[in-house]
């Protein structure tokens, strides 16, 4: 199978498995797991933040951020297709008592003026704006890199109104590798950052939440409340350290493969690329083939290729560590056959 459903399907490397086997561990709730402590220091250093917290998932990292930044009945500003709005089961409403406020972005980027206009003035009727959430790369917009100056302009607005900014940087390292701008430059535009170790970086489990030390201390307590205080978790922190040390630069290979795939697909009649490909995500529209996304996905699956639905006619393909350049050529060959059959009926 060529698995293009997500970059979460990546399996741990040999070095990660060795690191897990050899990890020094302790009870992390007591702060005694030296491997976890090492990972948290490494992540904080890479992001240029004072401290970091190892969390079970990107969703948990984002939700702990919301819980730590906000009070119940606050409003949180986010892009209308943000992962925190679309794909986290309304967790911030369920857990933090938050009301989301969405803004339509352009390729995932919110207009800073619209963000400013959405900030609530003092009025007895209104909720308080408690947080602004950004996402980089933006998943639903097709893995787009949110430009640094857009983030800076929003940070400016937020600072003027004394509102914190959280970055859902599940794929922040993809943004950094694609743009040549180091992760800490992006992180500098926000108070707190969550990034995933378990996606393109290939670690089996986990995300990091980074920010000021005082914030991370309170976040640690929220993690405990949510049942996310783990024990000898150096077993999974060790592969994450390998991911951060060894798996960042190779994200460029995923981006190259994604471009190669998108360029090839663009030349196939009936297939349309929905967004310019900047990183490892490709959104393909199959409407002109007279197929729904589900029908197209089934046909690909029969050819040994896995993909995911992103709308009625929209299919998402994600390149990752387990997909080679040769696999890309196989996919192009198979899609060509599928399209040709459909169009010559
Ligand atoms: C995957 C993802 C998350 C959530 O990460 P999980 O580890 O799956 O909970 C959050 N934000 C974005 C943009 C993502 O792509």
From TrEMBL:
One of its GO terms (biological process) is L-threonine catabolic process. The keyword Transmembrane helix does not apply. The modification N6-(pyridoxal phosphate)lysine is found at residue 199. InterPro entries: ArAA_b-elim_lyase/Thr_aldolase, Low_specificity_L-TA-like, PyrdxlP-dep_Trfase, PyrdxlP-dep_Trfase_major, PyrdxlP-dep_Trfase_small. It comes from the Bacteria. It comes from Piscibacillus halophilus. GO terms for molecular function: L-allo-threonine aldolase activity. The keyword Lyase applies. This is L-threonine aldolase. GO terms for cellular component: cytosol. Residues 3-287 form the Aromatic amino acid beta-eliminating lyase/threonine aldolase domain. Keywords: Lyase, Pyridoxal phosphate. Belongs to the threonine aldolase family. Its cofactor is pyridoxal 5'-phosphate.
């Amino acid at each position: 199978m060529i698995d293009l459903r997500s970059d979460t399907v990546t399996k741990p490397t040999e070095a990660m498995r060795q690191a897990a086997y050899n990890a020094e561990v302790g009870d992390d709730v007591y702060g005694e797991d030296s491997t976890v402590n090492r990972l948290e220091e490494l992540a904080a250093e890479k992001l240029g933040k004072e401290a970091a917290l190892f969390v079970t998932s990107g969703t948990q990292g984002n939700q702990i951020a919301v819980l730590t930044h906000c009070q119940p009945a606050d409003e949180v500003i986010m892009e209308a297709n943000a992962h925190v709005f679309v794909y986290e089961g309304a967790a911030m409403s369920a857990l933090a008592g938050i009301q989301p406020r969405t803004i339509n972005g352009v390729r995932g980027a919110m207009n800073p003026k619209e963000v400013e206009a959405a900030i609530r003035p003092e009025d007895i009727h209104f909720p308080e704006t408690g947080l602004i959430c950004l996402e980089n790369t933006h998943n639903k917009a097709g893995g787009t890199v949110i430009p640094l100056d857009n983030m800076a302009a929003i940070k400016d607005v937020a600072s003027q109104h004394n509102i914190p900014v959280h970055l859902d940087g599940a794929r922040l390292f993809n943004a950094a590798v694609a743009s040549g701008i180091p992760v800490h430059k992006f992180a500098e535009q926000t108070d707190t950052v969550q990034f995933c170790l378990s996606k393109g970086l290939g670690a089996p489990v986990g995300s990091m939440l980074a920010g000021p030390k005082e914030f991370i201390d309170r976040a640690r307590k929220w993690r405990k409340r949510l049942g996310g205080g783990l024990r000898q978790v150096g077993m999974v922190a060790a592969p994450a350290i390998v991911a951060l040390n060894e798996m960042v630069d190779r994200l460029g290979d995923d981006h190259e493969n994604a471009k190669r795939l998108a360029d090839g697909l663009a030349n196939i009649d009936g297939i349309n690329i929905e967004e310019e490909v900047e990183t490892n995500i490709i959104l393909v529209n199959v409407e002109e083939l007279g197929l729904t996304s589900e029908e197209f996905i089934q046909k690909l699956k029969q050819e040994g290729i896995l993909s995911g639905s992103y709308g009625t006619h929209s299919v998402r393909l994600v390149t990752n560590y387990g997909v080679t350049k040769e696999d890309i050529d196989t996919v192009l060959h198979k899609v060509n056959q599928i399209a040709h059959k459909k169009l010559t009926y």
